Structure formats: structure tokens, C-alpha cells
Amino acid sequence: MPVLDLHTFAGGLRPISKGGGQQTKSLRLAAADGREFFFRSVDKDPSAALPPELRSTVAKSVVRDQTSSAFPTGPLVVDRLLTAAGILHADSRLVVLPRTGLGDFDADFGGVMGFLEDRIGGPTAPLAHWGGATEIINSDSLF
Question: Which helix (H) or strand (E) element contains residue 96?
């Protein structure tokens, strides 16, 4: 598994903020070339979605085990299918974050395996490499 080189990838990356939903840890990174990226851990922990009274029971282990069986490396297959179909998308790269160099995020993300993807859109994102797009909107705006 390649370890992401924070000094050379996209001209250099620096962590901006931690995020994530109820299952995935994520880290937003800014590149020296103006782009932004998301790192999303492969390891999911859905136990936060359980009612508090079940979080310290065997239910936590069962839910976590079932989540790991849901093909966590699916984005690698989906990327190839989207490319073959000619659909514009952010490429997913399966990487391990370095154990150090993430500053305040070393403890939570150092040595974690996950997917690195371009952050599409945002107020400062360069759009030239997104098929000539002049604006990118999120799903909620589209609906």
C-alpha cells in the first residue's frame, strides 16, 4: 500500500480540518496548487449510529463486522466503471497516510488507510480540470 507523500503530491498537502459522518473518519487537505482533497478512512465504525444503550454490547461488534463486509474498496471498481462509461468523476486513490506530518491530526489519522479524492467544487476550487465546468453544485442544489 503506498504511503501518501505529503511533500510532493499535488505540490504539497497540508491538513485543514477533520470531518466525517457517523461511520467514516475524514480529513480535508489543501494542495499547494490550489486544489483540495478529502481523505476518507476505509475502516468504518457505525457504532455511533446505535442507540447509546447498545454501544457497549455485542451489537457494536456485530454492526462493525457487517459494515466491513460491504466491500470497502468499492471505489476502486467504481472509478474504472465510470472511466469506461466516460462519466466525469473524482479519481479515488487508495493510500496510507504517513504516521507523522499531519500536525494536530497525527493521532487520529497517522498510519490510517483510506481513499484520497479531489474535492469537487468549493469557492476556491480550480474548475479547469473538471471537463470545462464553469460551476459545480452539490446534490441538494441540483434537486
Answer: strand 92-96
